[in-house]
Amino acid sequence: MFEIFADLATWLVVDVFGLSKEKKLGDALHFFIEDTTKIFFLLLVMIYAIALIRASMNVERVRDYLAGKNKGVGYILGSSFGAITPFCSCSSIPVFLGFTSAGIPVGITMSFLITSPLINEVAVLLLLSLLGLKFTLLYVVVGMSVGILGGVFLDAIRAERWLQSFAAKALKQGGNTSSTVLSKQVEPLSLKERHIFAKEELLEIFGRVWKWVIIGVGLGSALHGFVPDGWIEEHLGNGQWWSVPSAVLLGIPLYSNATGVIPVMESLIKQGLPIGTTLAFCMSTVAASFPEFILLKQVMQWRLLVLIFVLLLVAFTLIGWIFNYLTPFI
Amino acid sequence: MKEIKVLGTGCVKCTKTVEVISKIANELNIDVNVIKETDPEIIMKYGVMSTPAVIIDEVNLHSGSIPHRQDIELWLKK
Known about the structure:
Chain A is mainly alpha-helical.
């Protein structure tokens, strides 16, 4: 179904530009054109379609739903909502406080916040189209597990001790008066309202991610075309133990969202980088970024902030090792 | 004079919202005092979770996006 984009790229590279697909430049350019056109097309169609469906979904409703839920299912729900609820990372502080002041435990809130950058509809879509169903499922399961287990762990060590004092106070009060914060009942949306919402979402998300796609695919094509064939496979292909923590550390200063990093993943895997190492690198790039962590300082003490950061790094490293070990059996 | 608060933790959209409201108020010749509120504690007190949010005379009128021109005009003319 996606051959048309490969054909388009071939036509442009070979017939229009007169380059050979066997040469490095032609090959890299082909990869770039095929992936950007395919991704842009999918984004335009799917963001609109998904936004139509989830027009009535927002963080306020998620909060009302999660408030007072049993802890066991709370983590799973928190993480699931994190995956499907749209919200901008610049809203993470108000969301954190909104959840907290509704008496939702810190662990469940963090399940939501950790999963959110890792999994979203754009990421899933790109994974499906570039790396196939099996890898997509793997990615989603792993991403949600990090969110769920991270949340369970944070509640187990009573992370709420290390909130900033006003947030801790809000959490305590929230536990008692959770019914008063429920938001007003929303009217069901008409089709026209859904269309308007979907159109705005499309413009907003596309306006935000298109440059990431170009950067991501650009890097992917550079890797594809200019790193000598077999180099990655020869040096990192055996999943050497040190390659995973190195990949995680390398991912920290590289700040990208899932949209930019997935085309790079595709290229790395095709070049023979083991799945575990690739997953570790990409999750670290997406979820462990300094700018967003510094924001959380407003609601958390340093101790908790550093703890969560280290927790994520350890989790991604473990994921990398486990998957490198399991690859022969999958 | 209307007091308008724009709540947000410093995202691009919040800054834009402040600009848009000031600009429209200027066009309509309505005297307003637009305040950008970035303190998370205060944002929490208004119960706002999606920013930017617009508070006029202590009433939360809008949250989650840059408001549309029609809406802003409506609020200002009230």
